[in-house]
Design goal:
Layout lengths: L1 E3 L5 H33 L6 H37 L6 E3 L1 H7 L6 H28 L3 H42 L4 H7 L15
Parallel strand pairs: 1-2
Helix pairs in contact: 1-2, 2-4, 4-5
């Protein structure tokens, strides 16, 4: 089966451009966070504590979810268009790059749900430990903020766990459809099995 590059719509290319921009902005944010921590620790340039904490929190908790979410949008758009265009290319398959970008064994939403579950679990644990101390000290505002954060973290967990299951089921359906449409070399099949998160053997962080 010959490989040809399937044409993708401008919205897929825009999503790709947004992913590139998000990656570049993330790299700048990570660099700024590291620079602020190093400069403050070494005494070169004093950095306000609030700015430093904000940079660290955004880098650790917001940036990963945003990047994985933007990547999921790009992968999902390309995936749907490749499947839709299959009938127009009899005895042809997408090139390896398109397959790996959009048609991996792992559904594009699976790593996003895993990221939300992992970060939600970490936040729930940390806030759950701090919440009783805030109540014991009589800090009403801190207790309210910690309680709201704990509730949001638990809600994220409640949404993410079934989301992982739904994405895995959809990924299995897409794998069957891909197998029915195209016969792929073993080397490509192996690359399609590598997940975005995890150890490369089909498992994920936190699994």
């Amino acid at each position: 089966m010959d490989a040809v590059e399937f044409p993708l719509s401008p919205r897929v290319r825009r999503a790709r451009g947004l992913l590139v921009a998000t990656t570049a902005a993330g790299a700048v944010l990570v660099g700024a966070t590291v620079a602020s921590v190093v400069s403050d620790a070494s005494g070169w340039v004093p950095v306000p504590r609030a700015v430093q904490v904000s940079l660290v929190l955004v880098t650790l908790f917001v940036l990963p979810v945003v990047w994985v979410g933007v990547r999921a949008v790009w992968a999902l758009r390309g995936r749907s268009e490749l499947f839709a265009a299959a009938e127009e290319y009899a005895r042809r398959r997408p090139v390896d790059r398109q397959l790996i970008d959009h048609l991996g064994d792992e559904h594009p939403l699976t790593p996003l749900w895993w990221m939300v579950a992992i970060l939600g679990g970490l936040c729930a644990f940390c806030l759950g430990v701090a919440f009783p101390f805030a109540l014991a000290d009589g800090a009403a505002l801190a207790g309210a903020l910690l309680g709201a954060g704990l509730a949001a973290s638990l809600a994220a967990l409640a949404v993410a766990v079934p989301g992982i299951r739904r994405a895995d089921l959809r990924g299995e359906q897409d794998r069957r459809l891909r197998t029915e449409l195209w016969s792929l070399p073993n080397a490509v099949e192996r690359r399609l099995r590598v997940p975005l998160l995890g150890t490369g053997d089909g498992s994920h962080l936190g699994a």
